[in-house]
Amino acid sequence: MKSAREMGLVACTRCNRVWEPGIAHCGRCGHKLQSRNPLGLQKVWAWWVLGLICYIPANLDPMLITRTLVSRQDNTIIGGALELGRHGSWGIALVILAASVAIPVAKFSVIAALALGVRHGSRMSAERRQHLHEIVEYIGRWSMIDVFVVAILSSLVQLGAVVAIRPGQASLYFALSVIFTMFSAMAFDSRLIWDAEEGEVPDLAPLPAPSPKDPKEEPAG
Amino acid sequence: MAHAKASADPLADLIACPRCDAVQHVVEPQPGQRALCGRCDHVLIAPRKSAGKQIIAVAVSVLILAVSATSLPFLRISRAGLANASSILDAALAFSSSTLFTLLSLLLAGLIVFIPALRALLSIYVLWPLVRDRAPWPGAIGAFRLSEALRPWSMAEVFAIGCAVALIKVSDLARVEFGPAFWIFAFLVILVPVQDGLTCRQSVWRSLDRSLVHPGRKERRAARDAARAGTPDLPTGRTP
């Protein structure tokens, strides 16, 4: 099975229409046509680094500031989850730890592995790597759980002097980190995985200028 | 290849997998069946019977639910004679204490309510004429493109799980009561993925393509691009 690039064609990633090279926008959906984005991997890394930078203060700063009559408590993400666990809600603590620690860490490593794999080759099969990419794209949004929890708590728990909850700095950094890694995963073009699989060096140069020859033969099935 | 299709462009019958770029000839599956990419098993086409009407119905409900869920009280807590009720918008705007946090607030409000509602509106706008076998309304292509681009940013269901976690956290601080919006939102969370599951992008794109009868912006741009492609000094695939 040949890729559009091998056939000298350009495919629209939004509506899957195939075009002759040299057309800038898809004639069906208007999406920008690019055989491969030469800056794609750089974009992936740029968002990745930004996400990682934001992830550090997200874990060090307090996520939730709880004031009661007698005390003030600053909870980081992990601290808050452990606190919940100590109160007996280990299930919820696990949900938080999974959403705010396990998923982001797994996401950072998978995206990095995918991007490195495209450049230097990988022992994993293309199918496996593509599945990983799909999982990362799907699961990324679920990291926002903790930010939403903070948002709900700080709007709801406003009982004057008795108890009040305020969002901490970390919530902002954490939300940004999730958003940046979502962009990073989106910037990764999974077609590069398959290019390398076909033995083609990941050559990101644009396709050669169109020649006025007859349309390529279509493969069946 | 001998294909007796009315379409002038022989490439129009081909599908390139958006995931692995494999070009293939896909026979349109029967409603309820799916066509997978021959190389990477990505779902290419998954049409459903009268999906258009169902999507419109679901989208209308999403819109109604979203409007009512935002305006009615969502949760209410009380402790030691003090009480506070909060709506979803309050939750989304909880961060608006400083400028930076205001940005985050607007973003959250978008993710929770506005993007799901906007996507419902766009679906109705795109599908309504198609269901009635009319030509698409102006800008339908752009509308569907926007709706597809916003798909990962619609986070109503993530917010729902966040609610569950928050409730458990609050329950040892104070007494919690559910407002009407809470139950409305619960339905909303179920309906938004239903709407996505029903939508087969490929089928929508195809029907938008077929039914375009008037030369619109799309044709003009395609013609312009084709004219440009003839000039040799322009590179293929613009490199920024």
From TrEMBL, chain A:
It is found in: Cell inner membrane. Pfam families: PqiA. The chain crosses the membrane at residues 44-60, 90-118, 139-165, 171-188. Keywords: Cell inner membrane, Cell membrane, Membrane, Transmembrane, Transmembrane helix. The keyword rRNA processing does not apply. The keyword Transmembrane applies. Its main location: membrane. One of its GO terms (cellular component) is plasma membrane. It comes from the Bacteria. This is Paraquat-inducible protein A. It comes from Pseudooceanicola marinus. The lineage of its organism: Bacteria, Pseudomonadati, Pseudomonadota, Alphaproteobacteria, Rhodobacterales. The gene is pqiA.
